[in-house]
Structure formats: structure tokens, C-alpha cells
Amino acid sequence: MLRDGHGRRASDLRVSLTDRCNLRCSYCMPPEGLEWLPKPELLTDDEVVRLVGVGVRDLGITEVRYTGGEPLLRRGLVDIVARTAALDPAPELSLTTNGIGLARLAAPLRAAGLARVNVSLDTLDRDVFRKLAHRDRLTDVLDGLEAAASAGLTPVKVNAVLMRGVNDDEAVPLLRYCLERGYEARFIEQMPLDAQHGWQRATMVTADDVHARLAEAFTLTPLPSADRGSAPAERFAVEGGGLRGGVGIIASVTRPFCGACDRVRLTADGQVRNCLFAREESDLRAALRGGADDAEIAERWAAAVRGKKAGHGIDDPSFLQPDRPMSAIGG
Fold this sequence. Notes:
Shape: globular
Oligomer: single chain
CATH superfamily: Aldolase class I
Largest sheet: 12 strands, mixed
Strand content: 15-25%
CATH topology: TIM Barrel
Order of helices and strands: EHEHEHEHHEHEHEEEEEEHHH
Helix content: 25-40%
CATH class: Alpha Beta
């Protein structure tokens, strides 16, 4: 099993399939984009499936989420999902995506074994979307959400990051949009993972800010904390304006949930990261390509997780942002 020195067990694997993305969201990367990983450095489809297989069969991984960059840009995605779904035991499979291309791929992904999706949507305003993402693709994202729901990739979760002076007035419209369609909105505090290193805590829209804005239009009732488990979101039952459902608020910065963390990450170039904010990585790609057997790979992986720190340390004066931005780590 993947246990760290603080008694936590990692069972949720996040796998980045590419560092490329077809949006340029300001909290993630600059408008001109980034220098992408050369193709020879990326794990092949076979290498991805083999490493995930080691995690599932030998190390107790029960959930696998494919991420990016933008994972829908990975040509072999449907086949990777199908081969992962065929593992024994079969993990629960999900996908985090910006939704562009999901209208075309939702049904094939569901047929391949994908269970659900998280789709990033920070605004319902086309002009704000263009300003934030530097692309005019809002309609594609909305179409992708609808296709995901129709294909049965449920619950469809909508991830929103609110930024002061950009889209912080859209908490209520976004939640209402989700409730009307049966999606689950999740508001996430902006984290220091942008390539520009421009994040400032003082200007961040906090979880408390989000809650206060939502409470102006809805009644929010906290769900029992015991039901949360290792999930990052604080969940609330929502009712108002003839609508009811649920919402999640992820306070990654102001109320970190490191003590219950069960996640481990694998980058598109085969590096294990035992924390989203880790500054060290462990190279599984070199072992894989050097002829290591599954047992040796599993031991290297377990050793990487054993060294996981107690928390991400954002509040520590010595905190340093990871060299890799979110787009190269995976959500």
C-alpha cells in the first residue's frame, strides 16, 4: 500500500496525460502559452496503462482520474480509459477537463468505462470567458457539459475558480445554472500554481467569500462532516428560488484538508508527485524504460509516497511555489 510517514494511505491517483491545453486561463498559464514537453519525454499509452496497473494491482489504488493540461487532447484517451477499466480489480475512473471536445467524446468515453467528469467553468459570460481564457469557446464548454450528462457521466461536477474583479460576481449565477441542469457546482479557492507566479493571497476570493455570496440567494445547510471522508469539498445542501441540490466549496488555502489527503499524482512524463505542492518528484519513467519490473517500480513509488510532508505549508513563511504550474502537474 502507498502509506506515508503520517499514517495516510494514498488510494486516489491523478494521472496527467499531457501538459498541453487549448485554453489560456489566467490563473494557470500566460496568453502565449508555455513550452510543451517534447513528445519523447511523455509516457506512451502502454506506459501509462502499465504504471496505472501497478498502482491498482500492487499498491491499493482504487480511483484513477485522468487530467492534463487538457486530457481530451490526448489522441489515445478513449483506449487508455478502456484498458484501465479492464484492470482487475477495476478502479473508479473519472476525468477532469475544460470540456472542449467533450460533446464529441462523452459517449465513447462512457462506453469505454469512464464513470464521471469534472468540467472547469468559471463564467457564463462570453466576454468574460474570452478575457479569462483568451479563447472564444464558452459554447463548446456548455455543449460538453450537456453531452456528459446525456451520456451518463454523472454526477457532472462543475469546477469554478472565482477571481476578484474578474468573475467574483458570478457565484450565484453559476450555482443556479448548475442546479437547473442537475450538475454539482464546486467552487475552488485559487491556488499558487500559476506559471506566472502572480498569485497573491490578499486578492484571493476565499471559501468564506463564496459562502457569503451564495447565502444571499440560497439557504445553505452543511452536510455532516463525517460524510466528507477524504473528499476536498465541504458540501452543502442548497435550496432557494424553487431550486434545490448541492454545492461543494474547496478551501484549499484557508482550510486545508491535508490531514485526510489520499491522493498521489503521476505527471505526463512519468514523475510521481506525492503532493500537489511538492517541490520534489520521483522518476518512474527512467525505471520503466530501464527495464525495471513491476515490483521494483512499485517499491520506488511507495518510497516516494513515504516521504510526503504533513501539509502543503502555504501559510509557512518559507513556502515556495512548485516549479511546475498546474497545467504540467494535473488537477
